[in-house]
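User: My collaborator sent over this chain with a note saying "see what the structure looks like." That's all I know about it. Can you take a look?
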Amino acid sequence: MDKHSDEKKVTMELTMNEFQRLQRLLELDKNDEEQEKRKEEEKKNHNFIQVYRDHMPELRWLMANHNFASSLLFFIIEHMDNRNALACSYAVFEDYFEKSKMTIYRGIKTLQENGFIDVLKMGTSNVYLVNEDLAWTAKNNEKKYAKYEGKILVSKKENKDYEYRNQFDRLKNLKERENLK
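Assistant: Without extra context I'll predict from the sequence alone. Here is the result:
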């Protein structure tokens, strides 16, 4: 049954001039709706990353003491999805930074050990999870490197210890260990 079938119908006789005025009013109403939608879209931050002030001391510590690791972190943050995850292989980092696999490994290890990120295995690639207490994003439009939206499945076998550890306690430990304020 049509949703309009229960509405009362009205029949009117209009002159051509009145009919044209009614059409213009309907067009103006439609234009107003479209303009309102555009204004709402403009208000949204589509390419937005939020970094929390609470962890600025840790970020400053990272930048001062581990320059390359901080570059890696900001690359991951720049390219992460709206779930704070980035799935990629070391080859992506090697290509972008023109650094050796060992240099990248050390940078990732620094980030992981200090609670900035966590790393899950996915076959020969990794999924990098940015600490949600550090940074958050609702949407990320990647332009230079291809990134596909979709579900990422990781094997329990490759990530046995993930469910047993509190992944971001290490960020708290860094703050306490380095007496960051």
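A starting point for your reply to your collaborator: The chain is about 45% helix and 15% strand.
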